[in-house]
Amino acid sequence: MSLLPNPFNALIIGASGTIGSNFVKLLESNPSCSKVIGIHRNSAHAIDYHHPQTIEASANSLTELGPFQLIINTIGMLHSEEWMPEKKLGDLNSTQLAEMFNTNTIGPALTIKHFSKLLDPKHSVMATLSAKVGSIEDNRLGGWYSYRASKAALNMIIKTASIEFARTKPNIALIALHPGTVNSGLSQPFRGQQIGRDPLEAVTDMFNVLANVNKEDTGSFLTYSGEKLPW
Ligand SMILES: NC(=O)c1ccc[n+]([C@@H]2O[C@H](COP(=O)([O-])OP(=O)(O)OC[C@H]3O[C@@H](n4cnc5c(N)ncnc54)[C@H](OP(=O)(O)O)[C@@H]3O)[C@@H](O)[C@H]2O)c1
């Protein structure tokens, strides 16, 4: 049985991004969604992974607006103004590795820690955007060292927390979600505009997957089409 009740309250983290803002747009027009709140580093209840104390402060500031039955964290990065994904071992550097792990692993891990308190213990779903290239088993092309590694580590955090939750909060599902290639600022340098999917179409597909998640799905790595990915 699906964990997402009707009606439900939703919280979108990283609502300034392409996927995050489209989730807000989609849920604002969904009659089953009573309330959707979008937060990012420049919003009310600001959350900024460069300032980890904002993660707990943001969650605490949202207590009275909860509980939420759906939380989706879309924060993530692939490149910056200073660097692009590494093509070879020789490109590895500590600055890029640290920044990628901070944004794609440490921030999302602390977000699960603090924001899971806002979830409805009776029935809810928390999804964190991961990426198929974070699958170790599926890695055939190589490259993109820090992005792949930071998403693989994120997947391990989600899986581990889901095992703990199965004991302590059995009606909450934690999901690692792959959006597919979506036309956004993140995919833009990699022909995202040409090969990426329309963001609203992508979030519609992802929402349909999350709306059908049940208790047994917790700790899964799912694609936008509901397929289970290998770790
Ligand atoms: N697009 C794709 O093809 C694709 C494919 C696979 C996986 N994904 C994953 O999907 C998620 C969303 O991607 P997107 O395409 O929507 O990218 P995007 O448009 O670049 O959005 C990224 C979001 O992350 C936020 N962010 C980045 N660094 C942050 C930090 N240090 N603190 C707080 N917020 C920070 C951005 O905030 P600002 O607006 O303030 O910068 C923005 O809200 C990411 O986790 C990505 O890895 C995307």
From TrEMBL:
Pfam families: adh_short. SUPFAM superfamilies: NAD(P)-binding Rossmann-fold domains. Transmembrane segments: none annotated. InterPro entries: NAD(P)-bd_dom_sf, SDR_enzymes, SDR_fam. It comes from the Bacteria. Signal peptide: none annotated. One of its GO terms (molecular function) is oxidoreductase activity, acting on the CH-OH group of donors, NAD or NADP as acceptor. This is SDR family NAD(P)-dependent oxidoreductase. It comes from Polynucleobacter paneuropaeus.
